[in-house]
Amino acid sequence: MSEAAYEGADPGLFGPGSVTWQCHGDPVMWIAGVRALYLQALHPRAVRGVMENSDFHKDAWGRLLRTADFVGTLTYGTTGAAEAAGARVRAIHRKLSATDPGTGERFPVDDPELLLWVHCAQIDSFLHVLLRSGVPLTPAQADRYVDENRVGARLVGLDPAAVPASTRELADYFTDIRPRLAAGADAHAVDEFLRGPPVHPLLVPGRNLLWRPLAGLAYATLPGWAHQLYGRPAPPPRTATRRLRHTGRVLRSIPAGLRWKLPPGHILKAMRRMGPGSRPSAYTLRTSAAILDRLGRARHDDGGGFKTWRSPD
Description:
Blueprint: H1 19-23, H2 29-40, H3 44-53, H4 56-76, H5 79-94, E1 97-99, E2 106-108, H6 112-132, H7 139-148, H8 150-155, H9 167-177, H10 185-195, H11 204-220, H12 224-230, H13 237-252, H14 256-259, H15 266-274, H16 289-292
Antiparallel strand pairs: 1-2
């Protein structure tokens, strides 16, 4: 917890001393969230569960905002608020089922395999976009981020012991699951929506100017095998990285106090609760890097590989 935190304040599940607290206030998290949707849609059962149990086409914006609200509550809310949010999600999922698009078999939406896929696709997307956009996390801090977020996996109904706890374990998980991934009709429906979500006619110019480039950038940051599954080309990895870093600089130039005033305002509420020293910024993590990290220099391949963000052996 930050030394400037108010005495007795509830830090929630993470607290200002965590990598998660410091990183989840970065504006590129919105791009990361869209990348996660693209990735999650490549599991036929997972995306079928969404399509059968929600009015995705009519309320996709609402679904995206509710997901952002859930992540914000888990990151910056009190312990009680985070636990209550998890309990609501588990209660909803417990009642739902869907039909396998390949076999016709009915399956529960809270199948641990599906919950694990959604979790891993989300955490990988968050971490990948943060790193690739220029957030200065060391390999050890990246591992710590993956480990910290197992608490979120617990809240949706997973056993944390069965969830990847490091970037290497996360990479191994994707290697194992890739043969079961495919871009079926549901995945292409998600792709179609994200490329051109329905809006009021007066908002179409704004959508084309603002949303489409960001959604295109999120797609571009997917790994090459995901582009192959979707059957849609993407710019070269180095081009995507340059665009993401530029976009990150532009978004971060918007004053944080202004960005954080947007509803539901989780970060400002957390700062009022914890004190001004709890203000999140990934750049404050530089001071603890020497303690957390081993000798070595982080490297990456600019292409979104899951095994790239670590120090040389």
